Fold this protein.
Amino acid sequence: MSSKQLDKSTVAEQSTVAEQSTVAEQSTARSTPRPPPPDAYGLKKLSSPGTAKPIVDIILVGDISKTRDEPWGLGAGFFFWPVKIPEVEIYEFLYPGNQVIPSITPIEAVTDLEKHISKETMANVSRSLRLAATNPNQFTQKRRAPYVILIGYGYGGLICERVIALALESSPATRVIKGLILFGTPHFSHGLTQWAKIVVKTTSEDPKITTGNGGGSSNVINAIRNLRQLVLSKDLPDLSELGRYFGHISAVQRMFFDKTRRGRWGTNIVSCFPEASPSNPEQLTILPEWSTIPHGFPVRVPKPYLEMTNFQENEDDAFGIISDLIKGWVAKLKAP
């Protein structure tokens, strides 16, 4: 398929999603800043098998509740995700440097979140991720493997779902993407509302939170603890306005669910969900029923939402399960 044909297909698919969007969002008069151009995104290599040519490239796509380098434990000065597999290289999908920054107030955090979940911005981000997956030479950091496994956390999971949902059966994305692992990815209006509360709380500037480089891993650990305490509080602005953006996201998720129920996807999707305490109604988290996929493989991560991707040791049960699943996918791709 030529690039012109692919572009036409993508436009047609995005038009279909637009038709399914809510009237409320389409009629809103509030404008949002234009998203960054595709070339503002990029890839960062995190680990490599060495001289051997990899079979699979893992692309980590982070949440917007955390600044760059934090979602995967990188801010602590070490990288432990996932266990090293000889045939796998690991990359992080980079958002523009100014896209994930703390807001000044919770009200401004809501406004920033509206920008991130607008249809235009999500289409732009997913287009850049699709190019990262299907074109090894798209960014300065070149990829080498013929296949890709996407791992999305929160917002990153929404973007991964969009890439898969909008890919035609004959498209490069469908041929290249061989697995999907989701961490705390919210589904439909209930899950999106729970996730929005976490994002607004964690991106609001607070004097108790320090995420600078000074102090190394201890500062990061203290910051996570402070963030965890912050998301337990009730001090939230009105989030009802965000509901008008959830329509186009839910429309894409319905397409994603319908598509991945068929064929190979049933055994190649993992949905990880964070711990939740039913006895603590004030805890802000994403409940399992809204952060798992019925036809996917569920994995419980016994950590709060903000800590669920920070694996630190091989003995972590969830870490072991996920690593074994990835090894199994790679072995199938190696088989003649």
Observations:
- Strands lie at 42-47, 56-61, 88-94, 147-153, 177-183, 269-274, 297-301.
- The radius of gyration is 19 Å.
- The chain has eleven helices and seven strands.
